[in-house]
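Protocol step 4 of 5: obtain the predicted structure for the target chain.
Materials: sequence only (see below). No template structures provided, no constraints applied. The aim of this step is simply to have a reference model before the mutagenesis design in step 5. Sequence pasted as it appears in the construct record:
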Amino acid sequence: MSTNPVFVTAAMGTADLLIAELAAQGVADLREGHGGANASATLAQAYRACLWSRVGLRVLWRVAEFPVTNANELYEGVRTVDWSEHLGFADTLAVDFSGSVPGVVHTRFGAQRVKDAVVDQFRDQTGERPSVDRLAPTLRINVHAGRATVEEIRADGGEVRAQQLYFTRDMQNHHGGLVLVNGYLYGFNNSILTCLEFATGKVMWRHRSVGKGSLAYADGHLYLLSENNVVGLAEATPAGYREKGRFTIADQGWPSWAHPVVSGARLYVRNQGILTAYNIRAN
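Step 4 output (structure tokens):
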């Protein structure tokens, strides 16, 4: 039986428990995502997770994925899906939208464009359309816009032109920045430290590392700072995650979101109102 990408939502901080639970049910390709876990599952496994998971909240069956740069592309992308496979014109639907798309200034507007695309497709094909029922729909459509694109920008005839080279969901970076080292991009994809081949977007490796945070690069190494007050050191190599060490900084009562800085053989780490310098010169 064929598998399909799914996303299982869960409460924050429970993704590791969810992944263990789904793995015990035979679900494959599990990896942590923001607010849950990504996986590949058969339809039977998806229904089984709905029935038996104690940690998961919703099981979302992915029907499409496409690049979007504006509201019109969102509308056209949704229309590429054959929605007659999922509901009929006499059924009802509701749309939940999250994320960010240029030109979509509010999640309600994003949901409206998705709904318009679905009902317009039915109206064009049958002359009739499904109705909206926000409380108890036949089909609930969840749309998330995750922005991770690589674009080429060049001067051409006195004009500046941008062309998208590829789109990826594997580097949905929150606040921690990215570093490009010898053709490889390092950064946190939500809470997972990830290495991508920059030219193609190919994932070289993923690792939980110190947890969601920020990073800097110096002398062949990644200096990592998690929002949970853990500092880590790892080699900057596409061959795999190779941690050299870690230590904990004092908790100041809030997440540590500042970026680490390396300068003059010193590692500077700011946590709220406290700045600390560490000597990292080789002995």
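Step 4 remarks: Residues 107-126 form the longest helix (20 residues). The mean pLDDT is 88.
Proceed to step 5.
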